[in-house]
Specification:
- The relative contact order is 0.15.
- Helices cover about 30% and strands about 30% of the residues.
- The longest helix has 12 residues.
- The chain is built from eight helices and twelve strands.
């Protein structure tokens, strides 16, 4: 997935300047995020190339989608990717820190998604754009959950992907912001290996938790049927 232009079935993404390139995490989140409630307003926090926003624009033909991105090069590239997509009239990119955007915003969203930075410790030795994109000192989980709680509509949902070992901490963080885990997907590379990622769906409305599992590959570079079915509407 390192090519500068990545082509999906209904859109393409130029990622030559973006700090973080297209990866499995973003594709999983864009494809898995529950949309049964047919949200009409979507916010993509840390939009990067615009991948998740574009996937959700494809899945939700009546929704408006806003992406917020801190990195200038990524923001400009995402804006171009939005402009060159079939859904340009429903997509908007804002170059800003999420915290600043959220503090100024007076609107709420039916769906908020985020593929947030993973590292919990500052990466002081590197000032690269990629390190900025992956270092959560720029968007701590505490800030993310606090502002998501403010921006999420009463019946809205918030989804994110993160390392599996963060699960319990994020459940507690959600509870402290009146966000309840209602659906989760445990992800592992292959059978016999530990879970590496978890996709989580939070709501302001309590519900019985639904837990599912996904294995990505049967052998190296050979996708499982479940993974193929999840992403079949996007990959060429």
């Amino acid at each position: 997935m390192k090519n500068s232009v990545f082509r999906f079935k209904q859109f393409k993404i130029n990622q030559s300047k973006s700090a973080m390139k297209i990866g499995t995490d973003g594709v999983l989140l864009g494809a898995w995020t529950p949309i049964a409630k047919q949200p009409l307003s979507v916010l993509d926090v840390g939009s990067g190339t615009g991948l998740i926003a574009l996937m959700l624009a494809q899945r939700l033909p009546k929704a408006s989608v806003v992406g917020v991105e801190i990195d200038e090069n990524s923001a400009n590239e995402a804006a171009d990717n939005f402009k060159n997509s079939p859904w340009t009239s429903r997509l908007k990119l804002i170059h800003n820190r999420f915290q600043v955007f959220a503090e100024k915003s007076d609107e709420t969203f039916d769906l908020i998604v985020s593929n947030p930075p993973f590292f919990k410790t500052p990466i002081k030795q590197s000032k690269s754009a990629r390190a900025t994109a992956r270092n959560n000192q720029y968007l701590p989980y505490e800030d993310l959950f606090t502002w998501v709680s403010k921006l999420l509509s009463i019946h809205g949902q918030f989804t994110l992907i993160c390392p599996f070992e963060y699960r319990n901490d994020l459940i507690l963080l959600g509870l402290s912001n009146e966000l309840y885990l209602v659906k989760e997907l445990f992800v592992k590379g292959m059978n016999g290996t530990p879970f590496k990622r978890i996709l989580m769906c939070f709501s302001k409305v309590k519900a019985n938790l639904v837990t599912q599992e996904l294995v990505l590959e049967t052998i190296r570079h050979e996708r499982t049927i479940d993974y193929q079915n999840l992403v079949k509407n996007y990959y060429l």
